[in-house]
Amino acid sequence: MEEKQHSNKSLFVKMLVLWLLLVVVGGGAMLWSTIRTQVIDGDMWREKARNREFTDRIEPARRGTIFSSDGKVLATTVPVCDLCLDLGRWPKKDSKGAPIMKDGRVVMESCITDDSAFMANLGEVCRILHEQFPKKSVAYYRNRIEKEYLKQRPSRCLYVERRVPYSQWTAIRNLEGWSRCVVTKTADGSVTSYVRAHIYGNLGENTIGLHYKTPKQEGYTGLEGFYDTVLRGQDGIYRCRRLTRGIWLPEEDVEEYRLDLDSTLVQRRVDGKSIISTLDTRYQDIAESALRKSMNQYGGMRGCAILMEVSTGYVLACSSLTRDTNGVLSENLWSNVAVSDHYEPGSTFKTVAMTAMLNDKKIDLDTTKRVRAGGVKRYSSSSGEINDGHGYATDTANLAGVLAKSSNVGMCELAWQYYRNRREDLRKGIQAIFPFGKLSPDVEALETNTRVVKLNSDRDFLNLSYGYSATVTPLQLITFYNGIANGGRMMKPLFCREVMDGRRRSEIKPVVLNEHICSAETAKQMREMLVGVVEHGTGDIIRNAVYGIGGKTGTTQGISDKSIKNSSFVGFFPADNPRYTCLVLVERTSIAGRHSAAPVFKQIADCVVAFDSELGSVRLQDSGRVVNPVIAKGSEQQLAQAYQLLGLPFSVIDTLQPATGWAVFDNSQECYRHYLPPTGVVPNCHGMTIRDAMKLLRSQGLKVRFTGQGKVANQNPKPRTQIVRGSTVMLELKP
Fold first, then answer.
1. Residue 150 CB partners (closer than 8 Å, separation 6+)
2. In what helix (H) or strand (E) does residue 698 lie, and over which residues does it extend?
3. What pLDDT is stored for residue 19 in this prediction?
4. How far apart are CA 571 and CA 545, in angstroms?
5. Tens of pLDDT along 110-166?
6. Domain 281-615 identical in fold to domain 631-734
7. How big is the CA angle at 195 (ends 446 and 78), to the nearest 5 degrees?
8. What is the DSSP letter of 36?
9. What's the gap between Cα 583 and its chain centre?
10. What is the pLDDT of residues 72-117, one digit of tens each?
11. Measured between alpha carbons, how far is residue 637 from residues 338, 643, 651 in Å?
């Protein structure tokens, strides 16, 4: 018995010791874990806890706006919304939670929408969406919404269309029966986002800049790309706190604390600065319209039109068009023709070669050369035959005659006599005055160095004198001509005038590339010869006796197919005191530059002279007769202002019709008369400006949409159609 008790006591002691050992070890382990968690690894765990409770929310900065030099908005950030509809329905229940039956058989249902109002305005919603997204018909939207609406369990978040402009989205939401079913927040957040919009559509969008994204990089082209760091600003970063699983304090709820609790602010939001570009919407519009019209008429795969201010180098218009595989002309995202395209300039380069020769003082204005009435000359066995594309009455001509008639033989005669044994001198003389290196304009575009080929053969040497042994870009060529027009002072082409930071403005001052590409006297001589080209040479098709034009035609033929040409015209105006330089290039066309490019130059020049207030006394003339720029119909006040700007007389003559504020041009009497818009029917807007047409149609309770540029050429519904108030009139504009 005693042995048994002793055995039990011994077992008890062992168990007690074991228990105490477990308590000590376990307690020690817990104590060590506590010390390690709170002291050794305390910072790490506290950081993890903080990250689970708080997060940083990014508040995107608003990108700056790009303005035109005439005060118009070219590119800005606008809100867009995804149109999502909540069409959900659920059974109606009584106070006890039981479904309410109709006629004892059908369960009555409740829904967010008011059935009658919702269906009554469905057509208007579909029309709004179709106008914004013309590729999808009204029937498409109606079928899609009705199909979902009639389902037994319709969607609580039906995505109808993404990126609907905020104004249209708001208009839909304000329709009766639609206010509650239009979703404002989804599981992913707000339906509102912000996108970059070009207010004037594709007008100059390649120069303004487009967003691109590739697997390797993302960014902007044009002005958007070059001034990206200025425009994008700095995103704001704010600390947000978690309320419960998956739910964080919304950003708008944090707003009231931001000024008081600095701890919520990680990085303050700074909106981007705005810039004022050198582009003028009036000149850009006429440049693009004239270039597009010429390329549609005469063909051409690529083309550009550039307008530059002589004294500053500011680019007032820059249109670059590329024809796609479907034959449609558009601004290409990856190709800015004016900055990037390399081409052999042909006869427009004769001005460069002749200026270099005059600088070398080996020739003067009285130098005469054989231009070959037959039009063909061979200089050596390796030179081949040099051809002239124009006939001459005599065998000789001075420098002005060589340039006026664009004589290839005449230029080769000069090069062969004075530089045959000093070819590098001619090359160096040309390279000293022409900007072959990168101009690095303030637009993001692919730009590479152009070059003069090695003058190893006689043919290469002679080709250089008339523009076939050098490659240039349109922007380089107009920069040189601008230097000639500016008295020998070459300015860097610039596309931005000012950077705006609130009310503060920082001017981007003109930059001089070369103070003297030639003497003032040589520049004057070259200008006079270029005026002669237009007055009685290859450019006589655009002769203008009022303000005067100086310039040079250029046509280069393809190597394998001589019917394919690069046609160009570059020059300046007014002739006596140049204020503007302009270049027009059409690549891969079948028409010479005097017929395809020169008329585009003339249209641009006429427009600029008409709008320039300092040239307001100039009259647009045709064969000595003053031609009024007629608007068929429009606001009497606006017409009076336009004619006053052009320095032309304006009056409205009508003894029978009372004054109405509108005027119509009477072709038979060549005068304006009062115009009384009809009531109850759609007025005739043919020949009106878009501003006047919109004003007239809206006064009749009609909405307006338009395509194209220029004056109203077509309208739908047709004139004198019965008015349906609130309906939309589509206008087609043409130059």
1. none
2. helix 690-699
3. 85
4. 16
5. 666 666 788 888 889 999 999 888 889 999 999 999 888 888 778 888 889 988 988
6. no
7. 125
8. I
9. 19
10. 999 998 888 999 888 877 666 666 666 666 655 555 556 666 667 8
11. 39, 10, 11
Q: What is the CATH number assigned to the segment(s) 631-734? A: 3.30.10.20
Alpha helices in 321-396 (DSSP H): 337-340, 350-359
Number of Cβ within 10 Å of residue 295's Cβ equals 22
C-alpha dist (Å) from residue 189 to 179, 238, 251, 635: 19, 17, 11, 48
Here the tokens at position 650 are 């304006």
Residue 591 · residue 299 · CB < 8 Å: yes
Q: Which residue type does 444 have?
A: E
- What is the CATH class of 281-615? alpha beta
Residue partners of 333: CB distance under 8 A and separation at least 6: 206, 210, 212, 221
pLDDT digits (tens, 9 = 90+) for 351-381: 999 999 999 888 888 777 666 545 566 677 6
Residue 636 vs residue 189, higher pLDDT: 636
Q: What are phi and psi of 16, to 5 degrees?
A: -65, -45
Residue 705's pLDDT is what?
86
Strand bridging mode 274-277 / 66-67? parallel
d(CA 461, CA 466): 10
Report residue 718's pLDDT band, with 50, 70 and 90 as the boundaries.
confident
The model's pLDDT over 122-136, given as tens digits with 9 standing for 90+, comes to 889 999 999 888 889
- How far CA 198 is from CA of 72, 144, 626, 662, 731, in Å, comes to 11, 30, 38, 32, 20
Residue 83 tokens read as 């149109």
- Backbone phi and psi for residue 555, each to the nearest 5 degrees, phi listed first: -140, 120
CA proximity to 272, closest of 509, 499, 505: 499
Burial code (b: 16+ CB inside 10 Å, e: under 16) for 541-568 equals ebebebbbbbbbbbbbbeeeeeebbbbb
> Please, which residues have CB within 8 angstroms of residue 65's CB and are 6 or more apart in sequence?
73, 75, 76, 77, 274, 275
- Residue ranges of domains in the chain: 80-190, 281-615, 631-734
CB 662 within 8 A of CB 675: yes
Q: How far apart are CA 200 and CA 300, in angstroms?
A: 25
Strands (DSSP E) contained in 324-453 are: 329-330, 368-370, 376-378, 385-387, 396-398, 451-452
The Cα diameter of the chain in Å comes to: 153
Share of the chain above pLDDT 70, in %: 82
Residue 206, amino acid: N
d(CA 599, CA 293): 11
Alpha-carbon span 702 to 694, nearest angstrom: 9
DSSP for 450-478 reads -EE----SHHHHHHHHTTSSEEB-HHHHH
